[in-house]
């Protein structure tokens, strides 16, 4: 049985704002991932059961392959125009307004109250009016389920699909060390409602293009070992032409972590616009949050990221310098 933990006063305040909104606007981080989309889908469908008219506007369109999880209102994205009409803004899976990229200015200019629903380490400069936060939650989708429960919205198969999508993706199908009892209990609740992890695995991980294996191979052959083999790094130039291929970087990072000596796995990828995206992962007890935040990013203890300015060789140098400066391997 999934029994959500009791809400603290700050969380109750956030729930009250969400429950009172007629037209909540949901916003996630740039290049929205399955946790953004799954938590938004669950909240949007759940709140519409109570008569609200939710709307979703993310900084970017969802990657292909997420249409199976779309809520009734659809996954909208920024087309550079005015924000959709709204009386509340709910930020899902982010707590730094800068991660909404081109939307940030318009969001901050809105007179509507702003609620953050998130499980990342919090930044020092809050921009929100209310916060529903738990760093122990495996995914923002878990927080979505807790909010709906607090509003007396029962999980059904549709809502559960969003929750489980968020859960499986942020826990790597329950393999990462953020997987906890609540994640498993909530997943069991979703299974009881007929939502199968196998179906989500099929949608997310088994619909790839024929060039995927060769692309993974190309990334893996770029593996460099640093720090006596404890750090593994893949640097991906734009010329490699893998830019649009979803999931290949995550899988490469999984392979790097499969090496016994490796406790920090890094993927530095040159984006189309010349900036460089760092994805960092680690094995317990190594931590990569400090590394990512030192480079202007953030995330979780063992899964973090940052966007660096280019060109790629300079970004690589900055990464290596930061790696020297921070202690990714705290010894207790
Ligand atoms: P990624 O490597 O993009 O899958 O991100 C790993 C984790 O770090 C996710 O929880 C992201 O939300 C977070 N993250 C990625 N990039 C950034 C960034 N620039 N700033 C803050 N957090 C980030
Ligand atoms: Mn995310
Ligand atoms: Mn997340």
SSE map:
Elements: H1 9-20, E1 24-27, H2 34-48, E2 55-56, E3 88-92, H3 104-109, E4 113-118, E5 130-133, H4 140-150, H5 157-170, H6 181-192, H7 197-205, H8 212-220, E6 224-226, E7 231-236, H9 248-257, E8 264-270, E9 276-282, H10 289-294, E10 298-299, E11 303-308, H11 312-325
Parallel strand pairs: 1-2, 1-3, 3-4, 4-5, 7-8
Antiparallel strand pairs: 6-7, 8-9, 9-11, 10-11
The protein binds adenosine monophosphate and manganese (II) ion (2 copies).
One manganese (II) ion binds at residues 29, 33, 35-36, 93.
Domain DDH: 27-166
Organism: Rohdeia mirabilis
Protein name: NanoRNase/pAp phosphatase
Quick overview of this protein structure:
The protein has 332 residues and is of the alpha/beta class.
Written account of the structure:
It comes from Rohdeia mirabilis. Its EC number is 3.1.-.-. It holds the Pfam family DHH. By secondary structure, this protein is of the alpha/beta class. It folds into two domains: 9-205, inorganic pyrophosphatase (n-terminal core), CATH 3.90.1640; 212-325, Diaminopimelate Epimerase, Chain A, domain 1, CATH 3.10.310.30. It is built from eleven helices and eleven strands. Helix 2 links the parallel strand 1 (24-27) and strand 2. It binds adenosine monophosphate and manganese (II) ion (2 copies). Adenosine monophosphate (AMP) is lined by residues 29, 96, 99, 120, 279, 297-300, 303-307.
């Amino acid at each position: 049985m999934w029994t959500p933990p009791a809400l603290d006063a700050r969380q109750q305040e956030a729930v009250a704002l969400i429950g009172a909104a007629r037209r909540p606007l949901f916003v996630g981080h740039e290049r929205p991932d399955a946790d953004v989309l799954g938590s938004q889908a669950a909240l949007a469908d759940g709140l519409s059961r109570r008569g609200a008219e939710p709307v979703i506007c993310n900084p970017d369109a969802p990657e292909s392959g997420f249409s199976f999880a779309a809520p009734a209102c659809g996954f909208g994205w920024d087309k550079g125009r005015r924000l959709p009409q709204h009386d509340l803004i709910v930020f899902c899976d982010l707590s730094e307004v800068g991660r909404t990229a081109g939307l940030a200015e318009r969001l901050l200019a809105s007179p509507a109250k702003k609620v953050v629903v998130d499980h990342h380490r919090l930044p020092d400069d809050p921009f929100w009016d209310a916060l529903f936060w738990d760093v122990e939650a495996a995914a923002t989708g878990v927080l979505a389920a807790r909010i709906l429960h607090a509003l007396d919205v029962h999980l059904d198969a549709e809502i559960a699909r969003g929750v489980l999508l968020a859960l499986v993706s942020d826990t790597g199908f329950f393999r990462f060390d953020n997987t906890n009892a609540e994640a498993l209990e909530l997943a069991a609740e979703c299974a009881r409602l007929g939502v199968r992890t196998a179906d989500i695995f099929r949608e997310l991980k088994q619909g790839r293009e024929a060039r995927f294996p060769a692309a993974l191979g190309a990334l893996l052959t770029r593996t460099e070992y640093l720090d006596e083999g404890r750090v593994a790094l893949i640097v991906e130039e734009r010329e490699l032409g893998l830019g649009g291929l979803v999931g290949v970087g995550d899988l490469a990072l999984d392979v790097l972590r499969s090496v016994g000596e490796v406790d920090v796995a890094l993927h530095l990828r040159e984006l189309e616009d010349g900036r460089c995206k760092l994805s960092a992962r680690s094995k317990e007890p190594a931590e990569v949050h400090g590394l990512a935040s030192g480079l202007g990013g953030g995330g979780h203890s063992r899964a973090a990221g940052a966007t660096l300015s280019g060109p790629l060789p300079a970004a690589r140098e900055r990464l290596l310098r930061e790696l020297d400066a921070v202690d990714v391997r705290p010894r207790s």
